Every structure is written in C-alpha cells, then in structure tokens.
Amino acid sequence: MEKLAKKHPDAAETPAKPYQPTQADAQAFKAYMAARKKAAPRLKVVPGAKGAVTVDYPDKALGQITLMKALGTTDDDFLNGLVHQLANVGSQGASPDERGINFMLAVAKGIEPRDQIEAMLATQMAAVHNATMTFARRLAHVDNLPQQDSAQTGFNKLARTFAAQVSALKDYRSKGEQRMVVQHVNVSEGGQAIVGNVSAPAPGVGPIEKAKEQPHALAYAPGVEMPRHIEEERATVPRASRAGV
C-alpha cells in the first residue's frame, strides 16, 4: 500500500500554464477600464458615525458634484435627500449596508437620469427591483400553499410595477422629441405628384359624375347607364344597306 501511495519518480507534476487572455478578454478589459474612468463615485458608510453616509471620493466637494451630474441634478438638498432615502431602502436593520446602498445607487446611475424626475423614477425602480427579488426568494422557499399564494401575488404585482416604470420612463424621455417621417414616392413620366394630405372625394362627386354633366364626354364607365337621349340619337341613325339591295 505504501508503494502505491508513493508517486513514480518520473511522474513529476508539471506546473499549470498561466492563462493567456484572448482577444475578447482584452477588448472586455479595455471597455471596462474606459467605463471606470467615467464612472461616478460610490457612497461609503462613515466609521464610528451613526448611519452617516458620504461620497467615496478623494475630494468630497468634487465627488458630490460628480455624483450630482450622474443623477441629473444640480441641487445639493436633492442629492442629500436622495442619498438618505437610498440608505434607508438599501439597508436591512438599523445599521446602513454599504453594499446594498451602492447597489441601488448603481441601478440609478446605470439608467443615466437627465433630470430630477428621472432620478426619482430610477431610484424607485431600484427599490421595486429589490422588493421583487425579496418576494422571488420567498416564493422559492415556501412551505405551504398560503405562503405560495402570498409570495406569488406580491411578486406578480411588483414585476408589473417595474414594467410600468420602464414604460413611464420611456414615455417621459420621448416627450417633446420631433420625429421626421421620410416616404418615397415614385412618379412616372408625365405624371404629377401631390405633397400633402389628400382626402377622398365625397359621395356623388368624382370623374364619373363630372362626365355625366358634360354632354360630349362619352367615355365608357362600367356600371354607369348611358343617358337616354344618347340612346335615342343612336336609334335614329340609319344603318348602311348592303350593296345591290
């Protein structure tokens, strides 16, 4: 048994080769570093302070300005109130959860709000997402049917609310945008094109009715009865007789 446990002297362990990044890895890393340079600052919990949350940046004033830009505001009071709300919603318990707070902030920053309305909607979407995942966890660990019904109802309502928020953000952003529709019109040689709204003629008014009003317009139109006086004129015209008769 000891002999079997010993390794063969020739079977030396070959060191594992270091991983060679692929081209896709290099492109992903390059895009990540470029995005990190543009990323807004995070939030951090101040050690020793009761629930104090501040901007995680070398210069606090510049970090606050950068964060306000990322959230679409220039109001200090709005930023302070929004950060306070993020700390309350993103934390479980009395102590602020730095990871949970920064997750909600990351959701809001990722939506790239352009004003305070969009910033508030973005943070609400983050809160609804958190609550949705909470009910999803409860639904996956139910013990009886009442628990399943309760978790399923809450999950469905929150999921629909999130979808409605996405639609509301899309509608709000598209408000006031000018849209230009380009249509191609083919006009044959000798024809004319009309640019503008063209309405259909009223009943009883059209080329056929106009032809009826003109005595010399004898163009045939399917389904239109020839005037009676024209038929009488045709009846009075004698037929040409055959030669020799």
Description:
This protein is mainly alpha-helical. 53% of the residues lie in helices and 3% in strands. It has helices at 2-5, 23-38, 60-70, 76-90, 98-111, 116-140, 145-174, 207-213, 228-236, and strands at 42-45, 53-56. It has a two-stranded antiparallel ribbon. Helix 5 crosses helix 6 (116-140).
Distance between the termini: 138 Å
Low-pLDDT regions: 216-221
Task: Decide which structural class fits the backbone.
Answer: mainly alpha
Radius of gyration: 39 Å
**Strand order within the widest sheet?**
1-2
- Helix tally? 9
SSE string, helices as H and strands as E: HHEEHHHHHHH
3D shape: extended
Can I get a quick summary?
By secondary structure, the chain is mainly α. The protein has helices spanning 2-5, 23-38, 60-70, 76-90, 98-111, 116-140, 145-174, 207-213, 228-236; strands at 42-45, 53-56. Strands 1-2 form a two-stranded antiparallel sheet.
How is the topology of this model organized?
Elements: H1 2-5, H2 23-38, E1 42-45, E2 53-56, H3 60-70, H4 76-90, H5 98-111, H6 116-140, H7 145-174, H8 207-213, H9 228-236
Antiparallel strand pairs: 1-2
Helix pairs in contact: 4-5, 4-6, 5-6, 6-7
Using brief descriptors, characterize the structure shown.
3% strand, 245 residues, mainly alpha, 2 strands
